[in-house]
Design brief:
about 100 residues, mainly alpha, 4 helices, single chain
Length: about 100
């Protein structure tokens, strides 16, 4: 279940935090799209039947998280709590996207 999926919970918190940021108008939609992509790809990946399919979606989520990170860097947003959530989520996604690889 998603309520027990730690990465999903971190991703939701991250997305909600991004919604409250003051970001340049031209990057706001990009940030919200990328942060919601993290959440949605985690949800979709968790429902896949094979490890390879799951890794694919978790890898996409990681890419979207890195896109968010780049936007935060461009906008010089350095909130400690947001950065901690991003770092924790990044570590989890990195591990998930490489789990059970041969």
């Amino acid at each position: 279940m998603l309520k027990d999926f730690r990465a999903f919970q971190f991703a939701k918190e991250f997305h909600w935090s991004c919604k409250n940021l003051k970001v340049s108008k031209y990057l706001q939609d990009q940030l919200l799209g990328a942060s919601s992509s993290v959440v949605l790809n985690l949800a979709e990946g968790s429902g896949k039947r094979t490890a390879a399919e799951q890794r694919r979606f978790y890898g996409i989520a990681l890419g979207s998280l890195r896109e968010c990170e780049a936007i935060l860097e461009l906008e010089r947003i350095d909130q400690i709590a947001l950065r901690q959530t991003l770092d924790q989520l990044g570590a989890i996604l990195f591990k998930l996207s490489r789990s059970s690889e041969n």
